């Protein structure tokens, strides 16, 4: 495991956009927050470029990320926001540049494709909130990002349903379900062996969720996994009048049941409601760094605990 060094006061974080663009006004809360941590900030100009939804051309977004990876003064890279576009960048980043950069990569959602690439090279990353959400996420989400970057990440406890989960020690891999699904058959396809698979998603149909989970199963992605950790599943819709359809044609299972049935079919334990994903309590967690996740009872709603090992 090629773990980057933790940051100290006076170090510099670089921000680029591998997907959608931001305005300078939108960026300001993130700059102010990071500077309050005693860190410096470098924002690449291409963050503010606009080419449709994207922050500049594929070349411009790639060059911005490469520049931050190669700069010696940059100790961590925070991607500005998600959306879509990182998959158009990921294959242009050489393995040796990633390995030699020796710095933390942070973000979530569309950034899952970058996490998967880094993690496959044995490099831990930080699944976290991004500048577009600094003004709306919880103080805990921000403090856990700061802690993860500076070696002060705090053990997390949360309330959530689980099934067949006792205590599991393993690294976490994964991220956004839709992005994990979109990588099937590619060089960055998720590798779940001997790992806890973390999944979250937003704005999907119930049957879409089932289809993606079945695809992961059929592709053998989950072989050798130790467990399934589910974060936020927000704005999930069904084929009903309530969600704007002309007739009621519900899928027939809620999203938690879909995941539980999937976990049962794989013979894996599953835990829900970890505070990360597309919601304000998007707390940072390490990907590809070993953790222990445990509970106090065998089944039901109760306290879960994640700690570093």
Basic shape: globular
Mean pLDDT, as a whole number? 96
Can you write the helix and strand succession as a string? EHEHEHEHEHEEHEHEHEEEE
What is the C-level CATH assignment of the largest domain? Alpha Beta
Q: Terminal Cα separation, in Å?
A: 14 Å
Number of domains: 2
Keywords:
309 residues, alpha/beta, Rossmann fold, Glucose Oxidase, domain 1, 2 domains, seven-stranded mixed barrel, six-stranded mixed sheet, 8 helices, globular
Written account of the structure:
- This protein has helices at residues 24-36, 58-70, 95-101, 112-120, 139-150, 177-182, 206-218, 255-266; strands at 12-16, 40-43, 74-79, 104-107, 125-127, 156-163, 167-176, 196-202, 227-234, 270-271, 285-287, 290-295, 299-308.
- The protein is an alpha/beta fold.
- The protein folds into two domains: 12-150, Murein tetrapeptidase LD-carboxypeptidase, N-terminal domain (Rossmann fold); 156-308, LD-carboxypeptidase A C-terminal domain-like (Glucose Oxidase, domain 1, 3-Layer(bba) Sandwich), CATH 3.50.30.60.
- It has a seven-stranded mixed β-barrel. It has a six-stranded mixed β-sheet with strand order 2-1-3-4-5-11, sandwiched between helices.
- Helix 7 links the parallel strand 8 and strand 9 (227-234).
- Helix 7 (206-218) packs parallel to helix 8 (255-266).
- The radius of gyration is 19 Å and the shape is globular.
